[in-house]
C-alpha cells in the first residue's frame, strides 16, 4: 500500500518541467496555427474553426485516415498472433535463448530510415533479392513502384519484419514467468496442447499482450519515416498514410493552418484509442490485484 | 533445437534475409550492383567502408548521433529515477492523471511536432546543437524510462527503505548507495530503451539539425538523393548503423524481455 505524500511532487518536478517544455509549447503553437490563416511574412488572420470544418469534410483526409486504419488494423492482426506463435515456439532454457533474443531484437535497433532504405534495396525488381526472386524465379510480376497492391504488401511486410519482435519479447517475458509446476499439473490431467495454451499460457500473457497492442497501435498509427523512405506515399497516393499526408501539407505546401488542424485531430484520435486501451488495462490489473 | 522450434527458426531466417542483403550489397562495387543480380559479392570491395571512415561528413554523422543519443540517455534516466520512485512509493494528488499525461507524449506523432520544435529550439538558440536533439527526444524517452523504472522499483519491498531509515541513512544517501544498486538491472533496461529509441528516431533529429550536429541517418538520406545511385555506399552506411545497437543489446540480453513485462501502466 502506497502512502499519501504530497512532497512526492518534488520528485516528479524535473520530469514534469522537461516534458512540459517539449510538449506544451509546441502543442500551443499548433493550436495557434490551427485557428489562423497566413499568406507568409508572419502575417496571420483569425480563421476560427474553419480549418477543422473543412478538414472533416475533405475527401483527402478521409482517404488518408481510412488507409491509416487499414494499415494499423492489418499490423495488429498479423503481428500479435505471429508474435505469440513465435514466442510459444522459442526455447525456454539453454544457449539458444540469448541467441534468439539478440537476433530478434536486431531489427528494432536499426534507424527507421535505414529500415526503409534496406527494404528498398531488398525489393528492387531486377537487382534486389526479393524482387529478383519474385520476378525471375517464381515468375510473378512484382514492382512496388508501379503496383499499389505490391506497395501495400511491401510496407506491411516491412513493418511485420521491423516490429513483430516487440510482441515476441513481451509474450516471451509473460511465458517464462509461468512456473513449471503448472505444466506438470496439466500433463497429469492429460490436457491437450490447446488447453494448455487457452487456460495457462494465454491468461499469463494477458497483461503483456495488452501492453503490446497499445504500443503497436501507437507506433503504427504514427508511422512516418519507413514508408516515406520506401514508397514516398506512392504509387499515386495509395500508401500515403496520415503522417505522410500531414508532412506533405505542412512542409510541402506550407499550409500551416490546415496542417495544424489536421495535427490536432490526428493526435486526438490516437489519444482516444490509447485511453480506451489504458482504461481496459487498468481495470484488468485492478481486478487481479 | 526441436521440432516445435520450427516457427522461431523460420522467423529468424525471415529477419536475417534483408539484413544479409544489406551487408552483402555493402561489399559490392556500384558496377556490380547495377549490372544485375548476384547472391554473393563477385568481387569483394572495401571501398564503400573506406569512403565512410575517411570522409569527415560521413564519420562525423556517426559521432554526432552517438553524442546526442548518449546525452539523451543520461538526461532521461537521471530525471526519471526520482520520478519513478515517487510513482512507485507514494500516492499524491493527480498521480494517475500525471502518469497518463506522461504516456500521451509517447503517443504524439512526431510529424505533428516537427515544425513547432524547429521554431521552439531556434528561438532559444539551440538549433543545430546536440543538446537540442537530446532534449527533444526526452519527450518520448522520459515517459518510457519512468514507466520501466517504476515497474522495477515496485518489485522492491518497502521494508528496504524503512530498514535504511532506521539504520540512520539520509534519503539521498539511501537512494544513491542502496536503492539504485538494487534496481541496477532496471536502470540498464531503461537506458537501453532510451538509447534505442533515440538512435532510431530521425524525423526530429533531422529537423533540429543542419550541419554541426547532423545525425548519420540524415547524411544517408542526403547522399541517397544527391549523389545519384550509390547503393553500395548507402548499404555500407546502413550496415554500420546496426553495430552500436547490436553491441548495446548484447549487454542487456537477459533483461530486455523482463523490462517491459515488469512495467505496470
Describe how the helices and strands are arranged.
The complex is a heterodimer of chains A (289) and B (265).
Chain A: E1 3-4, H1 8-34, E2 36-38, E3 44-46, H2 50-57, H3 59-89, H4 96-105, H5 112-123, H6 129-138, H7 148-176, H8 180-188, H9 193-221, H10 225-230, H11 242-252, H12 256-288
Antiparallel strand pairs in A: 2-3
Chain B: H1 6-26, H2 30-35, H3 47-54, H4 56-89, E1 90-91, H5 95-107, H6 110-123, H7 130-154, H8 159-166, H9 171-182, H10 184-200, H11 203-207, H12 216-226, H13 231-251, H14 256-262
Model description:
The complex is a heterodimer of chains A (289) and B (265). In chain A, 74% of the residues lie in helices and 3% in strands. Chain A contains twelve helices and three strands. Chain A starts with a strand and ends with a helix. Chain A has 289 residues and is an all-alpha fold. In chain A, β2 (36-38) and β3 form a beta hairpin. Chain A has a two-stranded antiparallel ribbon. The relative contact order of chain A is 0.12. Chain A has helices spanning 8-34, 50-57, 59-89, 96-105, 112-123, 129-138, 148-176, 180-188, 193-221, 225-230, 242-252, 256-288; strands spanning 3-4, 36-38, 44-46. In chain A, α1 (8-34) packs antiparallel against α12, α3 packs antiparallel against α9 and α11 runs antiparallel to α12. Chain A has a single domain (59-288), classed as MetI-like fold, CATH 1.10.3720. Chain B has 265 residues and is mainly α. Chain B has one domain (46-262): MetI-like fold. Helices cover 76% and strands 1% of the residues of chain B. Chain B has 14 helices and one strand. Chain B has helices at residues 6-26, 30-35, 47-54, 56-89, 95-107, 110-123, 130-154, 159-166, 171-182, 184-200, 203-207, 216-226, 231-251, 256-262, and one strand at 90-91. Chain B is globular and about 75 Å long. The mean pLDDT of chain B is 83.
